[in-house]
Design a protein that fits this description.
globular, 42% helix, four-stranded antiparallel sheet
Length: 168
């Protein structure tokens, strides 16, 4: 609970409360780092816009992955249900962050539930469209995979630091 409170305060400071009008452009996402203008446009061409109301479940833990999401505006919580039945928030995503990417890379069932905390707009990249990039835009797929790897590595480092801090 203390970590969640601190996270909420930090997100409010850094993101100005994640107001609906604070949309993030596709180019601003870390996963687009190093992409050419043409590659960003090719990515934009395979994305779909998805909108969710506050409280909507975007991803359900245990389901098969069908897409990954680029959060354009709004806030979502990443949740897990603990063995004792208690739901625990792992993190909150704000505009400019991805979610659902782990299951897309691993091709395994979703490891968490993602719920819209407020009205949300995302770009959605379907697994099918991602797979098609192998034949149509291998340069883009390789660049995206490299950026996914960097992003996942940063998350693992963050979790390692968090566990270290909690155990010390």
């Amino acid at each position: 609970a203390a970590l969640e409170l601190c996270e909420d305060r930090l997100l409010a400071e850094v993101n100005g409360g994640s107001r609906a009008e604070d949309k993030v452009s596709l180019e601003a996402f870390d996963v687009c780092a190093g992409l050419s203008v043409e590659q960003v446009q090719a990515l934009r061409d395979v994305l779909e816009i998805r909108r969710y109301a506050a409280g909507d479940l975007i991803i359900q833990m245990g389901e098969q992955p069908t897409a990954l999401y680029f959060l354009v505006f709004g806030r979502v919580s990443v949740l897990v249900e603990l063995p004792n039945g208690v739901t625990h928030r792992l993190t909150t995503c704000v505009p400019g962050m991805l979610f659902g990417d782990m299951a897309i890379v691993e091709r395994r069932p979703r490891s968490a539930t993602v719920r819209a905390d407020e009205p949300v707009e995302c770009f959605s990249l379907s697994l099918e469209s991602f797979d098609r990039l192998t034949g149509t835009r291998p340069d883009l797929k390789v660049a995206l995979l490299e950026n996914f790897a960097r992003s996942l590595s940063r998350r693992v480092r963050g979790l390692t630091n968090e566990v270290s801090a909690l155990s010390g």
